[in-house]
Amino acid sequence: MSVLQNFDEWKKFLQDRVDQASSLGMDKVTINDLAYEIGDYLAQDVDPKNEQERLLKELWDVADENQQRVMAELMVKLVDHK
Question: CATH classification of 7-79 is 1.10.760.20, yes or no?
């Protein structure tokens, strides 16, 4: 099963990547920038696999770049329990 099939699995995958980036010394700004790039890629090139991803894509599509960056930062914050 792909991590995109289940939203909880997607959050766990993202949490693992955020933890990995932090352990490699990446700061929050860099992690948030990467989250924005990933969010942009997913919104443009990946078909949402569940209702949560569909909602995020629809919000991403109507947001301007600043709002998209906030969304990406919030996704990181959602999974970053530190």
Answer: yes
